[in-house]
Write a structure and sequence with these properties.
It is a single chain. This protein is α+β, with helices and mostly antiparallel strands. It has two domains: 178 residues, Four Helix Bundle (Hemerythrin (Met), subunit A) (Up-down Bundle), CATH 1.20.120.80; 85 residues, no CATH class. Strands 4-3-2-1-5 form a five-stranded antiparallel beta sheet, with no helix packed on it. The longest helix is centred in the C-terminal third of the chain and has 31 residues.
């Protein structure tokens, strides 16, 4: 039995079934991500004035890698262009051209996820250290030439480490919102090409040590939640597009119009994934 309206549009909606389904699905996705964006903005605007960790209830600003985030944005936008070009190639009955554009789209998706994995690893090896004299620093430290992940103060003590050689962060220009004057000593450090200061901290003088993980601050909790959820959507979309590029090509030979419609539906989902990131990048990275 043939399922109606898989190719031809319905008379009541003017759309074929799959397109109606994807628009309904994307409506539910808007509500899902809308809740997270609302939560993030409310946490941001109600945070205490001042920079975390200098102010315990302040908001982390400039701790994310903005150049890498910008590059990732360009990667995802490029993939949105090529998925349209792949669909257009099918309209021209040019399957090899479709496959080339789709391969580029999937490659961009995997590249995006790879870059995001790098960002995650950098955060998991980045620590906020509070000393017994009330001072707070953030930075990286090495143990036997490696940057440890997810360590706590108990972990450091269990390994009988007495001193930590810490690459303490010098705040970059992104740390300071537009209109706020950057301190002169930071200008000087940047002019000298320094972004970290080496400091040796006695473990006995450390009050707490935590990586940049969800439990460290509400910012990291919602950052990891939103970006991981978005990453799952990128991965899911890439798997579907890769399926139609390689395994699902039989449908092209049997029913090219239906195959083209499925690519259009997959492209709509991919545009949504792209659009979410276009909102997520400025709100989370820049706000």
């Amino acid at each position: 039995m043939d399922i109606p309206y898989t190719v031809n549009p319905r008379s009541d909606t003017g759309l074929y079934n799959a397109k109606v389904g994807i628009w309904l699905f994307l409506a539910s996705e808007v509500m899902l991500f809308g809740a997270f964006f609302s939560a993030y903005i409310l946490l941001r605007v109600t945070a205490q004035q001042g920079f975390w960790p200098d102010v315990a209830d302040g908001w982390p600003h400039g701790l994310l890698n903005i150049p890498i985030g910008t590059f990732n944005t360009a990667v995802l936008i490029s993939s949105s262009v090529t998925v349209v070009m792949a669909w257009m190639a099918l309209k021209e009955n040019n399957f090899p051209k479709f496959r080339n554009f789709m391969l580029f789209t999937v490659a961009c998706a995997l590249g995006f996820l790879g870059i995001k994995t790098f960002e995650y690893k950098e955060k998991f090896s980045h620590y906020v250290i509070r000393t017994t004299d009330g001072k707070v620093v953030t930075g990286h430290f090495d143990v036997d030439g490696k940057s440890p992940l997810f360590w706590t103060l108990d972990t450091v003590k269990s390994k009988n480490i007495e001193k930590l050689k810490v690459e303490v962060d010098i705040p970059n220009r992104y740390r300071f919102p537009v209109g706020m004057q950057v301190p002169e000593d930071i200008h000087k450090a940047h002019a000298e090409g320094r972004h970290h200061d080496e400091r040796v901290i006695e473990v006995s003088q450390i009050d707490s040590l935590k990586a940049f993980i969800p439990s460290t601050h509400p910012f990291f909790a919602i950052y990891f939640t939103m970006t991981f959820l978005h990453g799952l959507h990128v991965l899911g979309g890439a798997i579907v597009l890769a399926y139609f590029t390689f395994i699902g090509t039989d449908l092209w030979r049997k029913n090219p119009e239906q195959f083209t419609n499925r690519i259009e539906v997959g492209g709509l989902f991919w545009h949504f994934v792209d659009l979410v990131w276009i909102f997520l990048f400025p709100v989370v990275y820049l706000l």
